[in-house]
Amino acid sequence: MNMEIPKISVVIPSLGEKILPDTIKSLNEGTLRPEEIIVCLTNEADFDTNKFFFKNVKKISTKNKGQVFQRIEGFKLAKNDYVLQLDSDIRVSKFCLEHLYNRIKNKKISSVGPKLYDLKDEIYFSANTPKISDRLSIYEKLFFYIMNGENGFQAGKISRSGEPMGVPESGYYENLDWFPGCCVLHRKENLIVDNFYFFSGKAFAEDLFHSYMLKDKGIELIRDDKAICYVDFSSQKTDYFFSHLKII
Fold first, then answer.
1. What does the pLDDT profile of the chain (248 residues) look like in tens digits?
2. Cα 126 to chain centroid, rounded
3. Strand ranges (DSSP E) for 87-174?
4. What is this structure's pTM?
């Protein structure tokens, strides 16, 4: 008996970045191909869907500029029961969407994200995470004490100072306080479709706001240990300030 292939919508807010075609190509070359890919552009952004051979790509123009606003407009138009929010500078691995779906299909009140690796060097990255999760250096202990008091490092939690803590590369993590918003699979009924980010320009820390609102709705945040995508961290990757120090 043939199993029904799940239908998934992908929503990509974009300014027409040059890497966007590669993002779309990686989605369509995966083992679970999206039924529709909605590219959300502002009126001034230039992106010609006609030059692609993928019939599942459609573009919409939004009246306002902003990653959160553009994504929400795409959410409202997504027609399938599962919706992937994706940034426009991402390359998903071949099995990424399949693994995310397999994790979420039996959990009705959850959103699931992948592991993130640097697009250029393919090194795992998660902000404010020890280099070795079970053995912290003295500098790391001091850093996490300043950040989170005596509780120190707690994977996937928001520290007492308000800074987010990431998760180590290995392991399956659930009940997180937050996760990066660059690639997240949701059930459609759990989507946040109210504009929660009213600042103009680049949406700094919007994933923290979004994670809080999902948690407030009772949505469990999960990091899948098999799903992988690649992000261009070259303009944003910064390890915490003690990470380069070594005990002499």
1. 345 789 999 999 998 888 899 999 999 999 999 999 999 998 766 666 666 668 899 999 888 888 999 999 999 999 999 999 999 989 999 999 999 999 999 988 999 999 999 998 999 999 899 887 667 889 999 999 999 999 999 999 999 999 999 999 988 899 999 999 999 999 999 999 998 877 665 667 899 999 999 999 999 999 999 999 999 876 554 444 333 333 32
2. 11
3. 90-92, 110-118
4. 0.89
Q: Say how many C-beta atoms besides its own lie within 10 A of residue 193's C-beta.
A: 12
Task: Supply φ then ψ for residue 98, to 5 degrees.
Answer: -65, -45
Read off the DSSP letter of residue 18: T
Structure tokens given for 58: 């459609």
Which two tokens mark 142?
Answer: 């001091």
> Residue holding tokens 């790391």?
140
By the 8 A CB rule, do 16 and 24 touch? Answer: no
Within a 10 A sphere around the Cβ of 184, how many other Cβ atoms?
23
